[in-house]
């Protein structure tokens, strides 16, 4: 039997928020992150995929940091955790990616509602809701994958992204990007999106359009010259993408935004 000590669902924190509990806690901790976070996991720093879940044992060091706005479900609890995990096929201090994951926030909200209510037997109800959550997590985790990303891979992808952005005129495509970091195209696409929150070609297009905006404002090159310098072999294609991102054609953008 477990007992809830504190709980919050969909709890927000500012970008840069971190926890660094080197000696862990005397209580158990349940965490569910909506987005990706940097985490110390099994002796290394990794970048989780969205909707990571971890159940920290007592005294387990806890470190995580979010570089963007953080939303997470959490609760601290005491009691006899081992039988509850065992009967549901779960382990402490392991990252899970349950499929689906949408039930988690709903159940943590119900735990929170009972825990802070004045209703009869509210602590017992909060405990039952938590035990139900572990049952559902055990079912969903049986379908999960564990796509953790180590720091070395993150640095390789950051280097590639920087290389792309300073050479926007080159012929970048998914096979070439994937080859640069020694991943298959499909795996490369998935990891890139997990790290940067956007697909690689979408990221590249936005970078090219941002560069085009600066050229249109501060340079006198023609639209076709700008298009060619950014890797577009077809000016019409460039104009179409520029308008899709900015809402203006390049000529309209230059006329509307350029001063002097």
Q: Which structural category do the helix and sheet elements fall into?
A: alpha+beta
Q: Which series of helices and strands comes N to C?
A: EEEEEEEEHEHHEHHHHHHH
Shape: elongated
Low-confidence stretches: none
Task: Determine the fraction of residues in helical runs and give it as a percent range.
Answer: 40-55%
Mean pLDDT: 91
Describe it:
- The chain is α+β, with helices and mostly antiparallel strands.
- It is built from 10 helices and 10 strands.
- Strands 1-8-3-6-9 form a 5-stranded antiparallel beta sheet. It has a 5-stranded antiparallel beta sheet with strand order 2-7-4-5-10.
- The longest helix has 20 residues, at 122-141.
- The mean pLDDT is 91.
In short:
The protein is of the alpha+beta class. 46% of the residues lie in helices and 20% in strands.
Summary tags:
alpha+beta, 260 residues, 5-stranded antiparallel sheet, 10 strands
What is the fold's blueprint, element by element?
Blueprint: E1 2-13, E2 18-21, E3 28-33, E4 38-41, E5 44-47, E6 53-56, E7 62-65, E8 70-79, H1 81-87, E9 95-96, H2 103-115, H3 122-141, E10 149-150, H4 151-165, H5 174-180, H6 185-196, H7 200-218, H8 223-229, H9 235-246, H10 250-257
Helix pairs in contact: 2-3, 5-6, 7-9, 7-10
